[in-house]
């Protein structure tokens, strides 16, 4: 700052502590400020994290159903030897799309759904740090998902596996549009993941309620934060890999082309440098769901919050140096492999920390056998099996036998369904009352759980045995004399039982959305901030910014004998869409953030991106150009300066009452 | 928590009973499987190993399987115990919330014990890795294996050289070096009873070693997804005593010897040169295609179509006429033959001894 220029009014405003009663004029004004317009305009333009979170959840679940149907068709083909239900090409497209769908279009997006919905609520914030980016990340996720499925109806879906190894995925061996769709779709999806991850990281650093120091956030926040940090480092690798592959295919470069000096193995490195951290990205937030919600049903706080949070971060950190364990069989020298094998086994230690923390929480608590508890307890069981089979695959010489057999298929399904799907369904039962204001059925929920749990183990446990019997992955059929007939039949039956369980869950979900009994604000007597809002929460989340003094604000009185957190009296922020930015570690009030209005720009930027990538896929350069111009236009609209987001405060400071509790943060705008 | 009290009793029984059933089912599956495997699972590396590159790994597999089974059982018992444990009356107040402290000894003790077990396992893993990574002595034989979509070319670099397909012969009790190449995409070479798998990567020559301590037929299989017919890309390793191996080698080294001058054999040879020789070779004749298996000594092999069919005259003819039905999208076309042509071709193929 220079001394010579006449100084502008200071960027300061005094925060006022106050109370906004439900139903008061102030409350109605606040609601009006934050509510999205009705009808399709609101639907396309809303930047409310709650709407976006629910859209993520529903969209991801639709993809889960699509991927599940693909799996069932494959299980029909594999139920008996030498079956002819599918041609090899159909089978290859199905298993590829099954993997792509479950891993990219279900597993992370569904967790993004939870986190988008829950983060501002558990952090005591008005919204995510960048609401419009949040909307953009959803639209691009949706469009990338549709893009990846666009060639499916024409029988030209991606068909080289989700891992998509070059040169099988190169133009020489794969001439159709299949792989172009996959490559470009993944680059597009990478944009969604990246902006979403940035949003989580910044939200964590800046949007926590006053007093919510980093050791007072729920474990879900640690899980999603860790996943997001991991994604920011890992996604560039896969986006690059797919972009290089597309260049090889359509522009004539030779990155993976051995005949012209390229390297086939480069693909595997770039892919797994991304894909292994990704594995943790799709389980750590789900483990966070369990760490937060299981204790509610044990009537006590989680045992070992700090070690569990630390082990979350440790898992991801070590997870960045284990990608080679997907490549033990590529001919890398044994000495190098031994390091990566050791690192892979070490990951079991943070997993052990979490496992014993969950068991100790149940042991020292008082279990309440509601449906979410069943899912979380079942999760612990499946987590242990999936984790232990992972120890076997980390053992280098043993992995030379296990890798690319059904043992790995069993392992990864225990990990991805056990650690993702079970906590997710448990989490939906848990937060459904907050999402909708209604309860799901306890009776149907219990039936559904047991069908899912039994079906899951009947379907996937025998896959371990198929793997030990030498059944390779990704084969469209097998001969009857290999000893694999019985295990495959059992697996196929189990798969349909599991599918029935999903159906029961969906029936309960759909029924309860309309007919479930009213839930009340806090039906589980849970301790975290989201349960202090109404069910469903108002558009502004919290009428005033709460001030937090512990990890369990709603249990504080019972845990420490005294309520220290302030939930009803807090900082009043009601001059337009405003949120409080706090300091990174301690959560001290720091800045008033002018939050953006609803906007069509994210939607149109998403559409324009889709047009651009469609142009590339069709090698219709003019169309790509149109898409690029559209992107530029949408970004200009997005960034256009707005007076109402102005950073000057024209109300005189002197009017505001001063007290020890008031602070004078700076004001700033957010996107 | 309105219906909490009502729900507690029945559901506890549910979980308890269900957990027990699940554990029982898993145990049954585990114990039932060896019975299945022993009889007829040729790739069962968990219970069978036939050489020093595979046996230590099999033992490691048993040790780790035992370890993880014990750990899983302990954790499940703790989990069920934690759920079903009897609580004192004071704890039953619904509004009551336990204090945050306590229970940490679970985390420390559990993690400490797990870590000790893990590092012990790691030590055993590294010792095993050391022993299977390379043979104790110089290999006596080097075989180049080139993976193709969807079959295996086998080259012995001896003097004279031998080329065959989908069937590797090795002498019993000797370490054999395998050089792995790929002609197209990435495949993986795997003979589970003899060793773990190694990818064949275009532009790279990978190496591994195998050794069979017992004479026998060991099935191998491509395990890296390589396209349409990945499922039908098998092969066999035949281990035989040194003398027998040498005899086999000598016979394979010979070019095609016309054993018959019958009319249909000559017609068949002509047909072969016209229709098949673009891809297939028969050493000693004009047929010298290099895109498909060398058929010089076709009838000495046990299987055809990369381990897919037993090598009988009928299956050979079926394969020629219906390759696209047997292995859809494979590079072998289905060839329409008149009855006369079929008979002639069969007669000729019968002479490939």
Give structural notes.
The complex is a heterodimer of chains A (671) and B (353). Chain A is mainly alpha-helical and 671 residues long. Chain A has a domain at 16-43 and 531-669. Chain A has 20 helices and six strands. Chain A has helices spanning 25-34, 39-45, 49-79, 88-123, 131-149, 178-206, 219-251, 264-281, 284-293, 305-319, 334-346, 348-364, 371-394, 396-402, 406-436, 442-468, 485-515, 556-560, 601-617, 621-639, and strands spanning 16-18, 545-547, 566-572, 578-582, 589-594, 666-669. In chain A, helix 13 packs antiparallel against helix 15 (406-436). Chain A is globular. The two termini of chain A are 25 Å apart. In chain A, 62% of the residues are buried. By secondary structure, chain B is α+β, with helices and mostly antiparallel strands. Helices cover 42% and strands 16% of the residues of chain B. Chain B has seven helices and twelve strands. Chain B has helices at residues 4-40, 55-84, 104-133, 242-253, 263-275, 313-326, 339-350, and strands at 141-148, 151-156, 162-165, 167-171, 176-182, 187-189, 198-200, 206-210, 216-221, 234-240, 303-304, 309-310. In chain B, 41% of the residues are buried. Classes of the chains: A mainly alpha (671), B alpha+beta (353). At the A-B interface, helix 4, helix 11, helix 12, helix 13 and helix 14 of A face helix 1, helix 2 and helix 3 of B.
Separation, N- and C-terminal Cα atoms of chain A: 25 Å
What is the string of SSEs of chain B from the N terminus onward? HHHEEEEEEEEEEHHEEHH
State the end-to-end distance of chain B: 81 Å
The amount of beta strand of chain A, in percent, is: under 5%
Q: Tell me the helix content of chain A.
A: 55-70%
Biggest sheet statistics of chain B: 5 strands, mixed
The strands making up the biggest β-sheet of chain B line up spatially as 3-2-1-5-8
Helix content class of chain B:
40-55%
* Spans where pLDDT lies below 50 across 5 or more residues of chain B: 1-24, 31-39
**Strand order, biggest sheet of chain A?**
1-3-2
- The helix count of chain B comes to 7
Q: Supply Rg of chain A.
A: 26 Å
Class based on secondary structure composition and strand pairing of chain B: alpha+beta
Secondary structure category of chain A: mainly alpha
């Amino acid at each position: 700052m220079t001394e010579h220029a006449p100084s502008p009014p200071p960027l300061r405003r005094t925060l006022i502590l106050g109370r906004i009663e439900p139903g008061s004029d102030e409350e109605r004004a606040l609601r009006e400020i934050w509510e999205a317009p009705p009808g399709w305009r609101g639907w396309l333009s809303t930047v409310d994290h709650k709407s976006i979170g629910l859209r993520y959840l529903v969209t991801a679940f639709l993809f889960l159903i699509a991927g599940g149907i693909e799996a069932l068709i494959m299980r029909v083909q594999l139920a008996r030897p030498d079956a002819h239900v599918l041609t090899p090409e159909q089978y290859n497209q199905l298993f590829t799309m099954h993997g792509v769908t479950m891993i990219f279009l279900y597993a992370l997006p569904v967790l993004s759904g939870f986190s988008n919905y829950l983060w501002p609520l558990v952090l005591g914030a008005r919204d995510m740090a960048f609401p419009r980016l949040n909307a953009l990340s959803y639209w691009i996720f949706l469009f990338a998902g549709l893009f990846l499925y666009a060639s499916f109806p024409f029988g030209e879906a991606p068909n080289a596996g989700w891992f998509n190894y070059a040169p099988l995925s190169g133009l020489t061996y794969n001439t159709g549009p299949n792989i172009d769709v996959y490559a470009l779709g993944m680059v597009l999806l990478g944009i969604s993941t990246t902006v979403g991850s940035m949003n989580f990281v910044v939200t964590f650093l800046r949007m926590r309620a006053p007093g919510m120091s980093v050791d007072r956030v729920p474990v879900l926040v640690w899980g999603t934060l860790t996943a997001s940090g991991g994604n920011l480092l890992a996604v560039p690798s896969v986006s690059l890999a797919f972009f290089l592959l597309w260049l090889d295919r359509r522009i004539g470069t030779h990155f993976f082309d051995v005949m012209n000096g390229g390297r086939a193995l480069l693909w595997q490195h770039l892919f797994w440098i991304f894909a292994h951290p990704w594995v943790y990205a799709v389980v750590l937030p789900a483990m966070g769901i369990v760490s937060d919600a299981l204790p509610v049903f044990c009537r006590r706080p989680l045992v070992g919050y700090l070690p569990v949070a630390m082990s979350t971060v440790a898992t991801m950190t070590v997870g960045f140096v284990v990608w080679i364990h997907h490549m033990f069989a590529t001919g890398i020298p044994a000495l190098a492999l031994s390091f990566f094998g050791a690192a892979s086994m070490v990951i079991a230690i943070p997993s052990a920390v979490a496992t014993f923390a969950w068991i100790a929480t149940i042991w020292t608590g008082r279990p309440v056998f509601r449906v979410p508890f069943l899912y979380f307890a079942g999760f612990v069981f499946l987590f242990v099996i999936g984790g232990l089979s992972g120890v076997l695959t980390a053992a280098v010489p043993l992995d030379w036998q296990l890798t690319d057999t059904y043992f790995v298929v069993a392992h990864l399904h225990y990990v991805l369904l056990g650690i993702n799907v079970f906590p997710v369904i448990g989490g939906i039962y848990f937060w459904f009352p907050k999402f909708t204001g209604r309860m799901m059925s306890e009776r149907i929920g219990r039936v559904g759980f047991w069908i899912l749990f039994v079906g899951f183990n009947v379907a996937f446990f025998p896959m371990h045995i198929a793997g030990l019997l030498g059944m390779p992955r990704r084969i469209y059929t097998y001969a009857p004399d290999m000893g694999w007939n019985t295990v495959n039949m059992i697996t196929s039956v189990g798969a349909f039982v599991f599918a029935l369980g999903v159906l029961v869950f969906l029936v309960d979900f759909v029924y309860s959305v309309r007919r479930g009994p009213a839930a009340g604000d806090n039906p589980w007597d849970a301790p975290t901030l989201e349960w202090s809002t109404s069910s469903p929460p108002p558009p502004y989340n919290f009428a005033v910014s709460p001030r937090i003094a512990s990890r369990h604000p709603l249990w504080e009185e019972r845990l420490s004998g005294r309520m220290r957190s302030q939930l009803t009296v807090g900082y009043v922020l009601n001059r337009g869409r405003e949120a409080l930015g706090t300091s990174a570690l301690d959560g001290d009030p720091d800045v008033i953030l002018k939050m953006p209005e609803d906007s069509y720009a994210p939607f149109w930027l998403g559409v324009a991106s889709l047009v651009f990538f469609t142009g590339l896929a069709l090698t219709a350069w003019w169309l790509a150009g149109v898409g690029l111009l559209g992107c530029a236009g949408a970004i200009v609209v997005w960034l256009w300066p707005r007076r109402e987001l102005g950073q000057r405060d024209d109300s005189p400071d002197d009017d505001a009452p001063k007290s020890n509790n008031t602070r004078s943060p700076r004001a700033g705008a957010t996107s | 928590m309105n219906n909490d009290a009502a729900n507690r009793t029945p559901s506890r029984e549910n979980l308890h009973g269900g957990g027990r059933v699940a554990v029982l089912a898993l145990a049954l599956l585990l114990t039932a499987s060896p019975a299945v495997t022993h009889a007829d699972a040729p790739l069962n590396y968990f219970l069978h190993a036939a050489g020093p590159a595979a046996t230590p790994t099999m033992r490691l597999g048993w040790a780790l399987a035992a370890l993880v089974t014990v750990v899983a059982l302990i954790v499940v018992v703790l989990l069920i115990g934690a759920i079903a444990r009897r609580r004192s009356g004071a704890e039953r107040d619904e509004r009551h919330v336990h204090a945050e402290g306590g229970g940490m000894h679970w985390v420390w003790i559990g993690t400490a014990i797990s870590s000790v077990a893990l590092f012990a396992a790691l030590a055993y893993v590294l010792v095993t890795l050391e022993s299977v990574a390379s043979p104790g002595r110089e290999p006596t034989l080097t075989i180049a294996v080139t993976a193709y979509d969807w079959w295996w070319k086998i080259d012995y670099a001896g003097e004279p050289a031998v080329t065959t397909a989908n069937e590797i012969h090795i002498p019993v009790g000797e370490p054999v070096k395998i050089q792995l190449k790929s002609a197209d995409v990435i495949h993986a070479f795997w003979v589970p009873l003899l060793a773990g798998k190694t990818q064949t990567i275009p532009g790279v020559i990978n190496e591994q070693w195998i050794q069979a301590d017992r004479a026998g037929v060991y099935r191998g299989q491509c395990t890296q997804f390589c396209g349409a017919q990945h499922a039908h890309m098998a092969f066999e390793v035949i281990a035989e005593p040194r003398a027998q191996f040498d005899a086999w080698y000598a016979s394979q080294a010979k070019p095609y010897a016309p054993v018959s001058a019958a009319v249909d054999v000559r017609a068949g040879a002509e047909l072969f040169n016209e229709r098949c020789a673009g891809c297939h070779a028969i050493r000693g004749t004009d047929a010298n295609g290099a895109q498909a298996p060398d058929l010089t000594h076709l009838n000495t092999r046990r299987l055809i179509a990369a381990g897919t069919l037993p090598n009988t005259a009928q299956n050979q003819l079926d394969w020629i006429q219906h390759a696209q039905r047997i292995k859809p999208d494979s590079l072998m076309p289905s060839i329409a033959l008149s009855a006369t042509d079929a008979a002639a071709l069969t007669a000729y193929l019968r002479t490939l001894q």
